[in-house]
Write a structure and sequence with these properties.
7-stranded mixed β-sheet, Class I SAM-dependent methyltransferase, alpha/beta
């Protein structure tokens, strides 16, 4: 298994249109995320990365939505996703739409998202599936220099393992197929063969286990037994 952190960096595409059939990928991803956006509530939604900024999230009840990236449009905060300029536990949801595939240090990116998320906050990840036909094309040397094949493709199990180490509860994860030649997409393939879909999505929530004892329970557990009035020590005769 190749290490997650690499020294070289690959410039991510600024728009979905920069990818072959990129608009089809974006529309298919929006359909997957639409029912989950409707379940999210709070004050701040953070869209991290160029491609995340173009995801339509109008159905989300979180009104304040901020796009964070080093470049691209639309952009509200220009910052490195590995150094988010936000306080700890200040964001209700983070969207990483195909941000991990073009990140040199995905572990650090996930830790930054975990840092700014509140307890029970939402984290959405999407990426390309290395176990699909798109992943097989990545083996062709000529295609490795062109998007999306110049991206890093992590397996679903590997990403789920990273989230479990950060104590995230995965609410939903699946792969789905996108067929550029039909607007309906690969619904049949996505239903029966989701593991072979060219795209994959993960929806998780941050869970925090309190490390401090409840003061009320602590006082109850340490309450000494009252001595009975007039009680004396008795010895059993042999």
């Amino acid at each position: 298994m190749k290490p997650a952190r690499i020294p070289q960096t690959v410039s991510p595409p600024e728009r979905w249109a920069d990818l072959p059939w990129g608009e089809y990928y974006r529309e298919a991803l929006e359909q997957q995320l639409k029912p989950w956006f409707a379940k999210m509530y709070g004050f701040h939604l953070l869209k991290i990365g160029n491609l995340s900024a173009e995801i339509n999230s109008e159905c989300c009840a979180i009104s304040h939505q901020v796009n964070v990236s080093l470049a691209g449009q639309p952009l509200q905060v220009k910052a490195n996703p590995l150094h988010l300029p936000f306080a700890e536990k200040s964001v209700d949801a983070c969207l990483l739409a195909h941000t991990l595939p073009w990140c040199g240090d995905p572990h650090r990116l996930l830790r930054e998202a975990d840092r700014v998320l509140i307890d029970d906050g939402w984290l959405i990840l999407s990426s390309f599936n290395p176990m699909s036909l798109m992943g097989l094309r990545k083996l062709v040397p000529v295609l490795r220099r062109t998007p999306p094949y110049n991206s890093r493709m992590f397996t679903m199990m590997r990403q789920l393992d990273w989230l479990s180490l950060l104590n995230f509860e995965v609410m939903y994860h699946s792969g789905f197929q996108v067929l550029p030649w039909t607007r309906r997409g690969g619904k049949l393939l996505s239903t029966h063969f989701p593991a072979l879909g060219c795209m994959q999505v993960i929806v998780a929530r941050k869970r925090t286990i309190p490390l401090t004892l409840n003061p009320m329970k602590q006082s109850k557990s340490k309450t000494p037994l009252r001595q009975a009035v007039g009680a004396t020590r008795q010895y059993r005769k042999p």
